[in-house]
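I wish you would study the pair of lines that follows with an eye to the fold:

===
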Amino acid sequence: LHRARAPRAPSRLMAARVALGVACLVLALTAVAAAGQVPTLADVLASTGEGITSARSRAAAAALAAAAPAPSSAKPGSDAGTYGCPVAAPRTTLPTPLPAALAGLVANLPSQFLDKVLTPAGALSGSLALVYGDQTLYAGGVGKLTPDAGAKDADADTLYRMGSVSKVFTSTMLQVATERGVAFGDEPVSKYLPDYAPQVPGAATPHAAADTTLEQLGSHQSGLPRQSPCTFGDCNISTAVAMQRLRNYTLLRYPGERPSYSNVGFAVLAAALEEAMNTTWREFVAKEVFEPIGMARSAYLPAADDGNVAAGYVGNDVAPLQDYGFEAPAGQLFSSANDMAKFMKMLLGTHKRRGETQAQILAGSTLRRWLRRRVWVDGTQVPPGYVLMTSWGAPWEVSLVNSPPNGPADFLQYEIVGKDGSVPGYNAHLLLQPELGLGMYAAMAVAPNASRLGNFDSTTAVAMSFQLVPVFQAAVDALNKGPTLPPNADDYCGWFNLTTQPAVGLFVTVNKAAGVLELDTAGQPTQQLQWLGGGALPPPPPRPPPPPPPPR
């Protein structure tokens, strides 16, 4: 029920971008000041500059690393274009206190989380965090840390093992390395691990896996099997020993083909990045992620005297909190609701610059590329009322949500970008809706002898998709009602040319019944224009006179 995504039709995004640009061009002719209301899907309409991902861009990346941009004091979206139009619309911020519908939803989160998610999944306790843009709307816990009488209540700082959500932090390491110009996703793993040489089925030469790229390792496209060359939970081996053992592995499929879920792929990716960045994965996560973001409760392993760690069970036994060793980058980390709220806000900073705040460790352009890049897409059609994971990212599991037929007409289909995790005694799920700026993280500890182990990942995905996103979308839409047309809107009717494409004729009319300006282009559906903000448009520079005719 919660597996798969066909790519969103590009026409909607293109139409939105065109509508924004032309609305700015046409409606900025007025002297009406911006009312400050902005579109919900601001990230979709924002600048599409991408992070540097290719080894061919090393020189540019090195220059960027040597002279990182200074934090901007301008508000998001306040950058002006040539004639004063905003380059990117600023994001909507929900008011405080929240609108009534959202306030009630947030207030009921703990009981709903317990009744709809934790109890069916056989949980002893759980934690939940909900963020919107830069706001933490909820962070808390329910249940008891242990089944003992008088046990402490779980709270927003209780630690849970996140399992494979740890892979997101390993992928973060690759994004940081790319921004610094020290490693790139399209580089072969053999550049950093020369001894990486598993067998490739059908290859003309043995050990042809040397050309496997870092991005393929981080997107389950390396062909490696699921587990590392060691016993799960007892993988205290060196990278050299792991490479030697992997020489005896045969890949499940040729690198770069459809994904095959692989924990060892992320272990190899982390080992390669350790060589590239001259650090260990453990040190990187602690110093380059946890510390600047302020994730003080998060840890590789909890301290022995930490009294706020949820106990998870396997049958009647407490799940051991062991070190996963070589395989740690695939599932080691512990975190809390409060800390994961901070991490999600960093991930949702797709409109920010790296270093704009101490916590913003990645540039918005990098985040947009990372959250939206699909390395494999299944064309499965999603019926109304379903959530299907139809595409893979790095390491994202991307679901397409098809709302019920009576759902919100302007947000009928959308994506949920997420990563779930499961290790003995614990489950976790990170879910993002980047365009709306909404994030949810849930974790649970399994109860002793749990008789019902439900689908924690599916339940949380459905809750995010059908209970949270539509309500938030409706609330934000209510805040985004643009100003009415000025009285002299008729003056804006007529033909316009795009200065960058003079041959493209644009015809603007006034729809009196709907109270909007409409844009017509040949062969394209009529688009409605909405004023998004900006100043008055100053006169354009005079055009140069036409060249004289050639002599006869």
Remarks:
- Residues 1-91, 532-540 have pLDDT under 50 and may be disordered.
- The radius of gyration is 26 Å.
- Residues 8-37+481-542 form one domain.
